[in-house]
Amino acid sequence: MSFVVNALFGMKDPFGHALMDYFHGQGADYLIRRDDGHIDYENPVLYFDVYKNEVPVLKFAQGLILDVGCGPGRHCIWLQELGYKVVGIDKSFLACKIASDRGVKLVLNANSLELPFNKPIFDTFLLMGNNFGIGGTLKGTESMLNGLWGIATNSALIIASCVDPEKTDNPSHLAYHRRNLRMGIPIGQVKIRVEYKGIIGNWFNLLLLSPRELIQIASKSSWKVKHIFKNGSQQYFTILYRKPLIKV
């Protein structure tokens, strides 16, 4: 196994500490606070096993795979067991440590938005668990997609799971949508932070996109939507393929 660490080691990491406590058998509920005061409570169990509804879309994976925001390695481990070569990357040192301890063969502790690669070597990118939105804004997401294009082989795919912000009747979320519209930003652009046992993470933006918005943003990048799989809930899955570079 290989675990590569960089300067992110010292950053405060409430999410990583919650994962580590859960990994060692302790209760580890953490909270996600939105900048309007809305709070959701989560349990790290969500990040340790592949879900049944993810299996069909993961079967599109091919070649060398980069799991962007791999967490404790649930997708890496599942794909390794099927014989794939997988590289996991996560900005959480503790998540990377857990992934390595669980058997992920290559884990990089690095910022998923500043990928430490400079050659087109990857055939598949995983952006699961809302990681398609880690760019935080429309511009940031376009930049992320263009960055992936630069390290992708000609037949590369992106496999992603997303949450459609339009599929809600929660008054708190609808009020947040209206606020975003007044500010001229997408309704699914949320500013959040993670808190756990007195450890308070930094605020960051996460962009939740409807299928219609995802198709629009992909059209402005070097990728094109190939499939969208809906299951009647807020969650949906998508496959994108790399558009060839047109020389003029």
Could you give a quick summary of the protein structure above?
The chain has 248 residues and is an alpha/beta fold. It is 27% helix and 30% strand.
Question: Can you walk through the features of this model?
Answer:
The structure is a single chain. This protein has 248 residues and is α/β, with parallel strands linked by helices. It has one domain: Rossmann fold. Helix content is 27%, strand content 30%. The protein has seven helices and 13 strands. It has helices at 14-23, 55-58, 74-81, 93-102, 138-150, 171-183, 211-219, and strands at residues 2-4, 30-34, 39-42, 64-68, 85-90, 106-109, 122-127, 152-163, 189-196, 199-200, 204-207, 223-230, 235-242. The strands form two sheets. The protein has an eight-stranded mixed sheet, sandwiched between helices. Strands 2, 3, 9, 10 and 11 form a five-stranded antiparallel sheet that branches. A hairpin with a 2-residue loop joins strand 9 (189-196) and strand 10 (199-200). Helix 1 (14-23) packs parallel to helix 4. The longest helix is centred in the middle third of the chain and has 13 residues, at 138-150. The N and C termini lie far apart (45 Å).
